[in-house]
Amino acid sequence: QVQLVESGGGLVQAGGSLRLSCAASGRTSSSYAMGWFRRAPGKERESVAAITWSGLVTRYSDSVKGRFTISRDNAKNTVYLQMNSLKPEDTAVYYCAAGPTLYNWQYWGQGTQVTVSS
Q: Do residues 106 and 114 touch, judged by C-beta distance below 8 A?
């Protein structure tokens, strides 16, 4: 089992930045890919960014490409999402996930709220 805890959410003005963190605990010796997802009010959950265990491969949704950066520190069992040039449409609950590949997610965090005001 892997437990994931997100932090770093909050309220920010459009154009601002936030950095989300996701700390993993439990069976962190496995080589998990990590991802960030979000769910906006009235919308389905969408993938935002993902990164392999090595950090060599990353993937981004078109809506955040060029503005968000995913990274990880395996020594700290933590994955980050640097969010720049935030827009009101980025407002959502952001979730961290872990899984064996970039397309198979087994563990989920509780989420952290990000609100971008116009």
A: no
Distance of CA 18 to the CA centre of its chain: 12
Give the residue carrying structure tokens 């397309």. Answer: 103
Tokens of 114: 């990000």
How does pLDDT run along the chain (118 residues), one tens digit per residue? Answer: 899 999 999 999 999 999 999 999 987 666 899 999 999 999 999 999 999 999 999 999 999 999 999 999 999 999 999 999 999 999 999 999 999 999 999 999 999 999 999 9
CA 107 – CA 25 distance, rounded (Å): 11
Q: What is the CA radius of gyration of the chain?
A: 13
User: Can you tell me the distance from the alpha carbon of 115 to that of 94, in angstroms, rounded to the nearest whole number?
Assistant: 10
Q: Which residues pair with 81 in a beta bridge?
A: 20, 70
